[in-house]
Specification:
Blueprint lengths: L1 H16 L2 E9 L8 E8 L8 E8 L4 E13 L10 E10 L6 E7 L2 E7 L5 E8 L14 E3 L6 E5 L10 E3 L3 E3 L5 E3 L8 E3 L30 H11 L8 H7 L3 H51 L1
Parallel strand pairs: 13-14
Antiparallel strand pairs: 1-8, 2-7, 2-9, 3-4, 3-8, 4-5, 6-7, 6-10, 11-12, 12-13
Length: about 300
């Protein structure tokens, strides 16, 4: 009886391990490829025949990076007739990287077999290719005789494989930073209190802020009640800051909300523009009055001279 169970155990181990194909092909180059790196598999481009997980692990010496790529895909068809191979395509191929090497990768078909093309010409690269497949009528011969060559991509049905990585929980970053489970990012802090919290200086070419605060163009409407300059002066003397602008103490306690502050400052600029327009009108009126007085004085002087003569 013990011998019987031992045979069953050995058979189960042999059967189970047959779906894991380690070190199918190894690649190394002591130089730089001319075209890229093409992995020629023996996987047939056959619909509904495979759902492999292909892992590429190694060392990309050219950029001093570890290689850890995981590729998945499925082959399906777009037509009505499943026997029509012209309708076959790579369905939802995806690539994830747990290393730091993320080259452009393509799937293609050459001579009816799946080809993986790494579009990179990296110096002194080496890696091993392994795979897992089960439950789709795979045969072990499909995972034998793979080769890696320096050739251009010349196949059909070619698609670029998009990268997709997903993280869950807290992701800690260097420099005391974090992307936490709530989706908040802290740079220079591990306790972000907003979607992005930065403990330090931000250097940017451009910042775009969406706001729901009304733009204060209503200042230019005829019914807008513009404070008199005397009223503004009295307010400043009493409060030591502009009306509707927080005091220095409030800034220290609460910080600045950029969107609100920009709208408040814009409102003050628009009010200031109205004050300038008002002053300009008064200056013009005074100039006209002064001109009249000057003309009157000239006429009076002329009249006075005529009397003397």
């Amino acid at each position: 009886m013990k011998k019987y169970y031992l045979i069953l155990f050995l058979l189960s181990v042999a059967f189970g391990s047959a779906q894991n194909y380690s070190n199918i092909v190894n690649y190394s180059i002591n130089g730089t490829p001319v075209n890229g790196v093409k992995i020629k598999t023996n996987l047939p481009f056959k619909v509904d025949s495979q759902m492999p997980t292909i892992t590429i692990s190694g060392f990309n010496y050219g950029s001093s990076e570890p290689i850890r790529l995981m590729l998945v895909y499925y082959i399906w068809y777009t037509g009505v007739n499943i026997e029509d191979s012209s309708t076959y395509y790579f369905y939802e191929p995806k690539m994830s990287s747990s290393g730091s090497y993320t080259p452009q990768v393509f799937l293609s078909v050459e001579n009816g077999k799946v080809v993986i093309f790494i579009n990179d010409k990296s110096y002194f690269q080496r890696f091993t290719v392994s795979a897992y497949a089960q439950g789709m009528q795979e045969t072990s011969s499909w995972f034998q005789g793979w080769t890696v060559v320096d050739e251009p991509m010349t196949g059909i049905k070619t698609v670029e494989v998009p990268y997709q990585n997903r993280f869950k929980g807290n992701v800690y970053l260097s420099g005391g930073s974090i992307w936490n489970s709530a989706g908040n990012v802290g740079i220079g802090t591990e306790n972000p209190d907003a979607r992005l919290t930065v403990n330090g200086t931000i250097h940017s070419k451009e910042v775009k802020v969406d706001t729901s605060i009304p733009v204060p163009d209503y200042v230019f409407k005829e019914d807008y009640n513009l404070r008199s300059l005397q009223d503004v002066e009295n307010y400043i003397k009493e409060n030591s800051h502009l009306p509707e602008i927080p005091s220095a103490k409030e800034f220290e306690q609460n910080g600045i909300k950029v969107s609100e502050m920009n709208m408040s400052l814009l409102k003050k600029i628009e009010e200031l523009t109205l004050y300038v327009i008002q002053q300009n009108k008064k200056i013009y009126e005074l100039q006209q009055e002064n001109k009249k007085l000057t003309d009157l004085e000239a006429r009076f002087q002329k009249f006075e001279n005529a009397i003397k003569n």
